[in-house]
Fold:
Amino acid sequence: MDEERRRPTFYRNLFAGLCFLFLLAGLLSGSFQAFWACMFSGALSRTAARKGWADPPYAEALRRRLKGLFGKKEDR
Structure:
């Protein structure tokens, strides 16, 4: 996919990951603050997707670094 046509997904994925972490913390501890944080980060994730928040300048460098760490061996 061309870089110009790539949809911004950094904030959507960031807040979705935080949502799942807070959900796990809430399930393990029963903390209502963790469930509230889960709902809040989930709402931010959906807002970022719907509004099309632009990726920050460091997103592409972070994506390449993480792909090198977690990518398939054939991609390296």
